[in-house]
Amino acid sequence: MTQFPSAIEHIIVVLAALLNVLLLFLIAKFSSKELGLYKYLLSTIALCDIIMSLAHGITAPRAFLIGHTFAVTPHALFVEPSRALIICYSSLFTLPFYIMNIHFLYRYWNIKKPERIHLFTSKPFIFLLITVGAGAIGFWAWLMTFMGSVSGTDELARRYADQYERTNDDAWVTMDYKDNYGQWNHRTIWLMIIFDGLAVGQCFLAILLSSLTFYHIHAATAISPTLKSRQRRLLIALCLQTAVPVVCVYIPYLGLISSPILALDLGLFPDLCPLLIASFPAWDALVIMIVIKDYRQGLLSACRSSRIREENTNESVHHVDK
What we know:
The protein has helices at about 5-30, 40-60, 85-90, 95-110, 125-145, 155-165, 185-220, 225-260, 270-290, 295-320, and strands spanning about 60-65, 70-75, 175. The protein is mainly alpha-helical. The chain has one domain (about 5-300): Rhopdopsin 7-helix transmembrane proteins (Up-down Bundle), CATH 1.20.1070. A 3-stranded antiparallel beta sheet has the order 1-2-3. Helix 1 packs antiparallel against helix 2, helix 7 runs antiparallel to helix 8 (about 225-260) and helix 9 (about 270-290) packs across helix 10 (about 295-320). The chain is globular and about 65 Å long. It comes from Pristionchus pacificus (Parasitic nematode worm). InterPro entries: 7TM_GPCR_serpentine_rcpt_Srj (IPR019423), 7TM_GPCR_serpentine_rcpt_Str (IPR019428).
């Protein structure tokens, strides 16, 4: 039963990485001057998604819900499974929304405060953004070190062994909402509140910046209707991009870590989460390639050129055969 979704997961990981490599090619070759510095931000997303795909392929996380316990462990095939591996992997998921919010800030400044756009070429500002991003990853990883196991370790190990026919000792990150005596684990509850608060806060910031940008695009009088339309399309593309990690990462994440407090049985949902999480870099790339006209037309142009070259080659071979 587990081999089938695992095979799909591997295919999705490879496809996601390839799609983002293709996106990098399209950005490098077909970005118009109107995109300006934004193409570098799009390249950052593509690179981040490639890293996320590789990290997922290496870690292969597996989630379990048992009563009041949530647990995740790496089903790693190419490296030694460890608690540190799953912590590092999980902390990387602070990046998608952080980078998206940088994009929203860029779009907002582009309309409301265009004089600040030059900051995105400023080395101190870039260093600040990188430092904050690295700090967010480190903070998330540090919080996860407080996650442990008060109950259920033996049952988790047994269920993992039954499902995957291998052992994975000492490679678990768990959230036990109740201890062995049935008492609430207040540390775990506070961790859940902090994790959920950080995720919801990121979403709120994205909604705030996107709403303000939509408003200022609509209210702007100093820019042409054509430019307004282009800015609106780029913002819609960014909103669609943002919806991808919300649906594929944050909703599954919130469901997995929050449902054990009520001991909810989510059925096959924990088994499907790795597929959802693995797919989000692919959807990210597809949204950009489909919605942004430069890359959509560039991809179609590249496909047409390839087909024409193939037809010419076939005609040449046919002519030689004659």
